[in-house]
Amino acid sequence: MTNDGKLVTVFKDNTILILDRESGVEKWIKEDEAIISLVNEELHLWSIEGQIGLISKYRGHKRSRFIVRACFGGVQQAFIASGSEDSQIYIWHKRSGELIETLGSHSGAVNCVSWNPVDPHMLASASDDRTIRI
User: Is pLDDT of 91 > 90?
Assistant: First the structure.
């Protein structure tokens, strides 16, 4: 949900639907591959406020079979973190797209990461190895 009341959702791994709930207007964005955590091992950052469009792509994480979630976080939400099927956590600088850190501590696919909303230096990860790491 955006600040101006638009609902954003993903369909079929390659299409984003932006629905303005007040007016009922739908906007569809379609990519050649999948969106967010892509099968081609990319994350795509889209602008969904005002002018809708692709802002940046982030590469490095592994994703071919499982749902792998990414999130914004860190100081001033300046970073993007993602789990990966190679048991790692990848962290990129949001503006530059530079991969700045790869963290390993799991033995299974890392399918979820989340920044601490109070401490921007703390990140949690959950893995198919049945562990949660802080």
Answer: yes
